[in-house]
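On to our target:
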Amino acid sequence: MSLLDTIDNLYERLVAEELEDSREAGDTEDFLQDVMCVALNRLPPRYYRHSVDMMFYLADREQQEMHDKVRSAVGEARAFVESHQRD
């Protein structure tokens, strides 16, 4: 097991969940992966080591702020990728 296998970014999971929840007809996997990359680049990293649900340890206000940031970043990333797609 490498060091990279033991550390995760909480925002990766939150962005993936938001993309699944907001998936639209016609969204391809390539498009969603591009949106995920752009969104994650707009969010601060939030790393953790243990598989215990990190959200359990966050205050309600902090959880809501993270979800709001994710929703905004995904919306902005979707618009960015759509505006830069090639026909």
About this structure: Residues 3-83 form one domain. The two ends are 42 Å apart (CA to CA).
